[in-house]
Amino acid sequence: MLIECKRCAAIVEAPELYAYDAYDERDGLPERWTFAKCPRCASPLLAVQCDYGNGFEEDIPTRVFPARDRQLGASVPRSIRVAFDEATVCFRAKAYTASAIMCRKTLEGLCAEHEVKECNLSASLKKLKDLGVIEIRLFEWAEALRTLGNEAAHGVTSVISPQDAKDILGFTEAISEYLFTYKDQFERFKKRRAESSKD
After folding, report:
1. What's this model's pTM, rounded to 2 decimal places?
2. CA distances, 17 to each of 39, 45, 72, 122, 172 (Å)
3. pLDDT tens, residue order, the chain (199 aa)
4. Residue 116 forms part of a structural domain
5. Which of 106, 154, 162, 177 could form a disulfide with 181 if both were Cys (CB 3.0 to 4.6 A apart)?
6. Which of 26, 41, 65 is the last residue of a domain?
């Protein structure tokens, strides 16, 4: 299993020691939890994969122990998690401009997941706001991310500072989690409360 070892700070081919398949009825996705060890330093590694319909091998293993620096929840669509993970890897490698570009790509994924595909990212974000998918504060965050992402992608002399890259990652994480984790969680909470009030 290819997975990142936190201690070695490298992607390693970790031997699998034990795998356990589980099914979470709330998410409706089969999961495979794999316990492995790093072949370099022998550190323990725990990863999870989801079966989205094409088998576990189609999903990139997500390390859950040791905890990753930043990771999006399982309810965030895979394409968005993959883009965000790459932004995080770039940040750890001190490739701050590349990290900003991947955060911008994550934003594009957020729009696509909501079936909003305007002529450019700016117009797509405005449509998300107009549709009520994101409110004004999230729109401001997304616009700031888009602007800095554009500078990173198109400005040859543009340099993204470590602090700006860190902030961009944080805002990207917050927007993604809000749209796909907390929003859905709140809707389930309201539904549960409404049903319990009928009793």
Report:
1. 0.63
2. 12, 10, 26, 47, 35
3. 888 888 887 889 999 999 999 986 765 778 899 999 999 999 999 999 888 778 888 777 888 898 766 677 778 888 898 899 899 888 888 899 999 999 999 999 999 999 999 999 999 999 999 999 988 988 998 998 899 888 888 878 888 899 999 899 989 998 998 888 877 777 777 777 877 777 6
4. yes
5. 177
6. 65
